[in-house]
């Protein structure tokens, strides 16, 4: 019976081990699911739609080939569509069955040209930018030579743009693959169970052999009875050998390899061999960084309002690029280079500084743009253009005041430009703003929902600078602790005393040409950036008297060392305010300022 049980155990062990091995070999499912598409035509751009990327669950491995150079970027589907605009392009999307890819080519759309009353063309000139590489719209981009392969985890609402250089045809061979779940949760239990039965069968087999050996031993002598006649002597049997009792050793030889195979298989078992524990909400795999700015709690809000213009990693990349370019341009006084990343008042101040330093290198360079991370990121909620983003950079050196950047993107193919670069006041307390994943709506310049419409803030503050407490707007502003106002009053007093005998000094302040930018805060107020210009006019009153330019910057910019007529200097102020909501008991507070001379000339 023991031999029967051992044989049954060996058979079951062989079956279980065989099934376990088969699950990892002949019955093993493919490790990936793949779909391919070949784009016909010669369009410069190909869009891999979000539906194609979601054909199978899990990370997407994208491989593109078929061109000398390849470019791949991913971003919001709406942003990619806006960037392409009316240009010819192909769209690769999921087929009707969801198990294949289809490609549709769209030809370029030519907008009919209209004519103005004077005969000139009224059709906007198309943007000349055709190469998508380096665009601020992309969440991330990659480039390569003849082929390019990257693994991403892109959720719904994110698409991929494929191109060469924006002029040559885009790579036409596209393959998408996803890692498939080919785990075999019963392979491990079958192999372990088979090994256990194999060991049990071996034990039963040894016990059966021992029992058989004991059963063949000589029996004990019986009690003495009547003496029998002596029989003739016969030859004694030969001593039995172990092999004569147990038979062949081949069963043992067969068992050993099975044990070795089982041990080797079990030693290579991984998590794919075993049933997995239930996946909890907190153990899900995170996706590719930053493609989706909305969190679960914010999903309802995100469906009701436009998305934030940028994500935090996207903006940090943009700020890093701007900082690198600015550092190089400041060092070489490259006006053409700085104009590719600055605009408005910020550009005017920097270009003037370049002119001054070209004459007098001892003049200090403008403040540098710090390096991320960003302490505050406030993008505009917008699906259209232009778009505005506010970012505050706090350096590790706390003695350096934080810098506020107001960035503006005019169109999908334009990059973000620094419109305002403002240093925060030492005691400034920026108001609470929405998370970067939600963003803030832009406030209309003439909004009546604030204590003062944004487009009136510059004029009102300019009047406070000039007239002080006599200004009608003085009560609206938090003047206590306003270092910029205090410095303006002190500078005017000192300058007036200096020129009291030889010349007259006149000051004028007014709203500058810079655009007003306003983004909402959590308390229904707004952060407002404005431009104010200060004009200082020195007029000589004595015929033989002369006046000198005030400072090295004025001297280098005007090109004179002294004047018998007088000098006029114009300073540009970039100012950042917090404007509370209408009806609030708070006051308009200056958060930061940056001042720079933009003009200095002798009076005619």
Summarize the structure.
With 604 residues, this protein is α+β, with helices and mostly antiparallel strands. The protein has helices at 2-23, 50-53, 77-84, 187-215, 242-246, 250-267, 299-304, 312-332, 335-338, 344-359, 454-467, 483-498, 552-558; strands at residues 32-38, 45-48, 60-65, 70-76, 89-94, 101-106, 140-144, 147-152, 158-163, 173-179, 376-379, 387-393, 403-409, 417-424, 503-511, 517-520, 526-540, 566-579, 589-602.
Question: What does this 3D model show about the protein?
Answer:
The protein has helices spanning 2-23, 50-53, 77-84, 187-215, 242-246, 250-267, 299-304, 312-332, 335-338, 344-359, 454-467, 483-498, 552-558, and strands at 32-38, 45-48, 60-65, 70-76, 89-94, 101-106, 140-144, 147-152, 158-163, 173-179, 376-379, 387-393, 403-409, 417-424, 503-511, 517-520, 526-540, 566-579, 589-602. The radius of gyration is 41 Å and the shape is elongated. Strands 11, 12, 13, 14, 15, 16, 17, 18 and 19 form a 9-stranded antiparallel beta sheet that branches. It has a 6-stranded mixed beta sheet with strand order 6-5-2-9-4-7. The chain has a 4-stranded antiparallel beta sheet with strand order 1-10-3-8, with no helix packed on it. A hairpin with a 7-residue loop joins strand 13 and strand 14. The model is unreliable at 245-254, 279-287 and 292-302 (pLDDT under 50). The N and C termini lie far apart (126 Å). It has 3 domains: 1-29 and 182-212 and 248-273, no CATH class; 32-109 and 128-179, no CATH class; 312-602, no CATH class. Helices cover 28% and strands 24% of the residues. By secondary structure, the chain is of the alpha+beta class.
């Amino acid at each position: 019976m023991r031999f029967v049980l051992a044989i049954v155990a060996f058979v079951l062990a062989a079956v279980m081990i065989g099934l376990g091995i088969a699950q990892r070999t002949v019955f093993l499912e493919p490790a990936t699911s793949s779909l391919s598409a070949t784009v016909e035509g010669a369009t410069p751009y190909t869009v891999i739609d979000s539906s194609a990327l979601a054909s199978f669950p899990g990370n997407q491995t994208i491989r593109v080939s078929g061109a000398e150079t390849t470019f791949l970027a991913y971003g919001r589907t709406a942003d990619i569509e806006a960037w392409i605009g009316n240009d010819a392009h192909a769209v690769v999307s999921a087929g009707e069955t969801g198990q294949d890819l289809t490609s549709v080519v769209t030809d370029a759309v030519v907008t009919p040209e209209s004519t103005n009353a004077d005969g000139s063309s009224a059709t906007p000139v198309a943007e000349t930018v055709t190469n998508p590489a380096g665009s601020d719209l992309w969440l991330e981009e990659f480039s390569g030579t003849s082929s390019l392969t990257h693994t991403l985890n892109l959720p719904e609402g994110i698409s991929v743009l494929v191109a060469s250089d924006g002029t040559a045809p885009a790579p036409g061979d596209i393959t998408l693959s996803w890692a498939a779940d080919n785990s075999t949760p019963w392979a491990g239990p079958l192999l372990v169970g088979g090994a256990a039965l194999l060991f049990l069968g071996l034990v039963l087999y040894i016990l059966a052999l021992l029992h058989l050996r004991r059963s063949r031993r000589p029996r004990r002598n019986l009690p003495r009875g009547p003496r029998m006649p002596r029989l003739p002597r016969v030859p004694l049997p030969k001593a039995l050998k172990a092999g004569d009792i147990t038979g062949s050793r081949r069963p043992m030889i067969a068992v050993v390899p099975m044990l070795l195979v089982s041990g080797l298989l079990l030693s290579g078992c991984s998590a794919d061999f075993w049933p997995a524990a239930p996946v909890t909400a907190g153990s899900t795999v995170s996706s590719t960084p930053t493609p989706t700015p909305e969190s679960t709690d914010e999903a309802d809000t995100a469906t009701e309002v436009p998305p934030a213009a940028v994500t935090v990693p996207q903006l940090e990349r943009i700020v890093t690029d701007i900082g690198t370019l600015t550092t190089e341009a400041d060092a070489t006084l490259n006006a053409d280079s700085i104009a590719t990343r600055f605009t408005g008042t910020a550009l005017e101040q920097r270009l003037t500084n370049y002119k001054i330093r070209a004459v007098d290198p001892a003049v200090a360079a403008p403040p540098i743009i710090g390096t991320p991370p960003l302490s505050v990121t406030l993008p505009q909620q917008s699906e259209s253009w232009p778009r505005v983003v506010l970012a505050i950079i706090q350096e590790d050196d706390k003695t350096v005041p934080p810098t506020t950047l107001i960035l503006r993107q005019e169109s999908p193919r334009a990059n973000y430009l620094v419109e305002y670069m403002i240093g925060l006041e030492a005691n400034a307390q920026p108001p609470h703003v929405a998370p970067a994943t939600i963003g803030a709506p832009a406030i209309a310049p003439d909004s009546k929902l604030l204590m003062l419409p944004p487009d009136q803030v510059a004029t009102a503050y300019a009047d406070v600078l000039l007239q002080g407490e006599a200004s009608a707007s003085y009560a609206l502003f938090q003047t206590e602790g306003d270092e910029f106002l205090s410095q303006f009053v002190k500078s005017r007093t000192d300058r007036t005393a200096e020129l009291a005998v030889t010349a007259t000094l006149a000051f004028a302040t007014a709203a500058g040409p810079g655009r007003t930018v306003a983004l909402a805060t959590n308390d229904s107020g707004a952060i407002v950036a404005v431009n104010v210009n200060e004009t200082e006019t020195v007029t000589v009153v004595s015929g033989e008297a002369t006046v000198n330019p005030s400072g090295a910057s004025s001297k280098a910019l005007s090109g004179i060392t002294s004047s018998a007529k007088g000098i006029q200097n114009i300073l540009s102020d970039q100012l950042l305010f917090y404007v509370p909501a209408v009806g609030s008991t708070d006051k308009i507070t200056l958060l930061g300022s940056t001042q720079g001379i933009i003009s200095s000339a002798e009076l005619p």
